[in-house]
Amino acid sequence: MKIAVIGTGYVGLVTATCFAESGNEVTGIDIDARKIAIIESGKLPIYEPGLLELVERNRRDLRLRFTTDMSAVRDARLIFIGVGTPQSKEGDADLSSIWAVGDALAKQLKDLPDEGPGSRVVIIKSTVPVGTNRKLMERLHAAGCKHVDVASNPEFLKEGAALDDFQKPDRVVIGVTRPEAGEVLKELYSPFLRTERPFLVMSLESAEMTKYTANAMLATKISFINEMSRLCDKFGADINDVRRGIGHDVRIGFQFLFPGAGYGGSCFPKDIRAILGMGRQTGTEMKLMQAVDDVNEAQKHVLLNKVLKHFGEDLKGLTFALWGLAFKPRTDDIREAPALTLIDGLLARGAKVQVHDPEAMPNVREIYKDKLSYSERPYGCLEGADGLIIVTEWQEFRNPNFEVIAGLLKQKAIFDGRNLYDPKLLENRGFAYYAIGRGRN
Ligand code: UDX
After folding, report:
1. Are 152 and 135 within 8 A, CB to CB?
2. Of 71, 121, 72, 125, nearest to 98 (Cα)?
3. Which residues are in the UDP-glucose/GDP-mannose dehydrogenase C-terminal domain (predicted)?
4. How much is the average pLDDT of 309-319?
5. Residues with Cβ within 6 A of ligand 1?
6. What is the CATH number of the domain that holds 177?
7. I need a labelling partner for 139 at 20 to 30 A (CA). Which of 43, 210, 230, 436 fits?
8. Is residue 145 annotated as a catalytic residue, yes or no?
9. Residue 429 burial by CB count (10 A; 0-12/13-18/19+): exposed, middle or buried?
10. What ipTM did this prediction achieve?
């Protein structure tokens, strides 16, 4: 099938590449010539494990190409939109890119012949407030594109595991207004549905709402366990044991119940706020979602609060080593990362901060420049530090040499935002060890 994917950001690139990999002829389109030039030079504008190799292979095999020329959509039967929908100043989703793409599409498609339902489908993959797909459809129809179907196909990709999530989805959700659009998308997805994964067809609004509801549920689990972990700290209970204690109940399960320094990234914070925006617009009270957001904002301060409790309010003259800056491992993404809140708090109290992250340092350097010192190696950043703070659970931080750490740190204090270590073991080695919800404040 001939496919166009508009937007070569995270979602667009993964979508374009995986559809090329399954045998389609795909054109990735972006108005940003810089991004296209990066891809054409054999690199990627984002980091995702395995993606570069797949892009390169499909480009070589001529199934995947990139361009800034919007007229490429004229050849495509399916046109996916994967442009950004960032948070606006008011906290709602900013849809200006979606409308701009819609208008550009109308210009290209309006003079093409009507070949019947499902013959040309525009599919929004970006996460958009409920009602957006229908508005896009009305806009396209009003601009002379009555022959174009609009479908919603929310993505459920996790950064760092996006290729697997795309190629082995738990489910594919499609919102349509005419069944033929669902049929052609089912054909497109069939190579990924071999293992009896459900292909769920519903209305545009239900598909849009499915995406928000999934992320809201996941974010709620995180804020829930983070809140319980605070209580654990107060009573000397260990959240790890509690998690095991609840997870065997299959109604609860073990997943997504790891406490930490708060969720970050490009999805959860933005989507929860978009839900709050939809609540405001419709006069629907969203008390739980507000609480999920509030708990998360507070949780981003949990590590700093533990540091202040140990060292006192004034951190002048103290140096801290930070392991992990990305909002989670296996990505260089620092959007809404809890590490940034922590860095701001430490700097504001006069501390010096030395950081290490396997992938995210260039992005952090762009913001903080020489306000931080950057270390290419985890141990390098410990030298002369008064404490080590771990924010992101990269694999290489899981089993460090504590003797080396003790030798490099000026004071043996570890603040572990991801509960990586055994508290007893560290205390036996003479560390002051603070984790999340493991019975110490
Ligand atoms: C998420 C959803 O998982 C995905 O389905 C959706 O399409 C986009 O949003 P992503 O943002 O890539 O994906 O990250 P994810 O792995 O879900 O983690 C989100 C945040 O939650 C991270 O900051 C992570 O550290 C935090 N988290 C996750 C916890 O604090 N505890 C957990 O138990 C799980």
Report:
1. no
2. 125
3. 321-423
4. 97
5. 155-159, 215, 218, 222, 256-258, 260, 263-265, 267-268, 327-328
6. 3.40.50.720
7. 210
8. no
9. middle
10. 0.90
